[in-house]
Design goal:
Distance between the termini: 31 Å
Pfam families: AAA_22 (PF13401), Cdc6_lid (PF22703), WHD_Cdc6 (PF09079)
Structural class: alpha/beta
Radius of gyration: 25 Å
Protein name: ORC1-type DNA replication protein
Family: Belongs to the CDC6/cdc18 family.
Domain Cdc6 C-terminal: 303-384
Largest sheet: 5 strands, parallel
Shape: globular
Function: Involved in regulation of DNA replication.
Strand order of the largest sheet: 2-3-4-1-5
DNA sequence: TATCCACAGGAAGTCGTGGCCA
DNA sequence: TGGCCACGACTTCCTGTGGATA
């Protein structure tokens, strides 16, 4: 057995592709950000009052996934902090990961070295603690709330309102907010008071085109990969695939990194276009597998019901899915959920891209959804059967 | 043109679990 | 230890939708 481990380690240890693999990871902020000069300039202009220890305006940043919103924001704040560290501090919170008002406040307090329990306190108490803490620290605190739309859709904009009003309760300190969102229409859904306060300044990040993505990849490849580990045609392919995917730089870098890992695993000294193709399939498979294996039990059962139903026809209605689901639940001897809940589960599966659910009006025959699979049946089955013993035993 | 169908989906509430604090 | 709170999963109740049909 240890022979296998030694063999694998010796192959990977001799890696000929990467010089610094971590430079291709999404959280790495490079020293230069090509094609984002205008946005950097605009943010610096808005945050310039920090140089005089004055509170800058709140900012709202829009743009699709992978357009550099987070990287540019972190880049500007990092560089301003190098120059004016005595004037302000900044705290970054990803509100998709910390997706409740409680977790956001807890994250901010933890960044300020204040220990917070995982649960058990009211959000009002956390807010009180935050105000107390802020009154002890630096005069100005910049709070970056990334992917803020996801949290607000779930829990409302109350926490944003409280943040925008917090300055009234602070004696020495002041808060400025930077909200980052993928949803251009998100701000329209906010309470007018929050909207006017949070959106003092707005910046839009347009998607990258294929040429711009190519420049970004070339710059990053130069830093992260060994010389001659990659050719221009491979970079072009990564850029083209990511450009097709609404100009997503994160996707382009992921493709390059995973293609490099595949090439390295195979003992090659150069990444080829076929490695990129393999990387594309692997990234998609991993994403889907992770989503599927962490689904709640009834969501998995609904998916199995869809798989069974789609053996006889190309699409199913919500009612047909629910019927098939009830039969399965009955067969397994588990209590079923209501149709209302199944409707929500179908929406959730649609949102994460596992199924396609199109609302259709069939006149006298009512309004429903036409449901079909968006990923291969094999991947779904594998992930569900491997992650749930009850379903596995029923299936086998 | 009114009616009908098969849901969609919003709002408010319940339940169980896990955890804090006085 | 009891009261309180967060949170996810779920239920109940309700109104809205829009094209086919009588």
């Amino acid at each position: 057995m240890s022979d296998i481990i030694d063999e694998v380690l010796s192959t990977l240890g001799r890696g000929k592709i990467f010089r610094a693999r971590e430079l291709l990871l999404p959280d790495y902020v490079p020293e230069t950000l090509p094609h984002r000069e205008n946005q950097i300039r605009k943010i610096v202009e808005i945050l310039a009052p920090l140089a005089r220890s004055e509170k800058p305006s709140n900012i709202f940043i829009y743009g699709l996934t992978g357009t550099g919103k987070t990287a540019v924001t972190k880049f500007v704040l990092k560089n301003l902090y190098k120059r004016f560290s005595s004037n302000f501090i900044y705290i970054y919170v990803n509100t998709r990961q910390s997706d409740t008002p409680y977790r956001i406040l807890a994250d901010i307090l933890e960044s300020l070295n204040s220990k917070v329990p995982f649960t058990g306190l009211s959000t009002a108490e956390l807010f009180r603690r935050l105000i107390r803490k802020l009154n002890e620290v630096n005069p100005i605190v910049i709070i970056v709330l990334d992917e803020i739309d996801a949290m607000v859709k779930k829990h409302g904009d109350d926490i944003l309102y409280r943040f925008t009003r917090a300055n009234n309760e602070l004696n020495k300190s002041k808060i400025s907010l930077i909200g980052i969102t993928n949803d251009v229409k998100f701000v329209e859904t906010l309470d007018p008071r929050v909207k006017s306060s949070l959106g003092e300044e707005e910046i839009v990040f347009p998607p990258y085109n294929a040429e711009e993505l190519e420049d970004i990849l070339k710059q990053r490849a130069k830093l992260a990969l060994n010389e001659n580990a990659i050719k221009d045609d491979v970079i072009k392919l990564c850029a083209a695939l990511a450009a097709r995917d609404h100009g997503d730089a994160r996707r382009a870098l992921d493709l390059l990194r995973v293609a490099g890992e595949i090439a390295e695993r195979e003992g090659k000294d150069q990444i080829t276009t076929s490695d990129v193709e393999k990387a594309r399939v692997e990234i998609e498979r991993d994403r889907v597998y992770e989503i599927l294996s962490t689904l709640p039990f009834h969501s998995k059962l609904v998916l199995i019901a869809i798989l069974k139903g789609l053996r006889d026809k190309s699409t199913l209605t919500t009612g047909e899915v629910y019927e098939a689901y009830l039969k399965l639940a009955n067969k397994m001897g588990v209590e079923s959920v209501t149709q209302r809940r199944v409707s929500d589960i179908l929406n959730e599966l649609d949102m994460v891209g596992i199924i396609t659910a199109k609302v259709v009006n069939r006149g006298r025959y009512g309004k429903t959804k036409e449901i079909s699979l968006a990923v291969s049946e094999d991947i779904i089955l594998k992930a569900i059967v491997e992650s749930d013993e009850r379903i596995a035993s029923m299936w086998n």
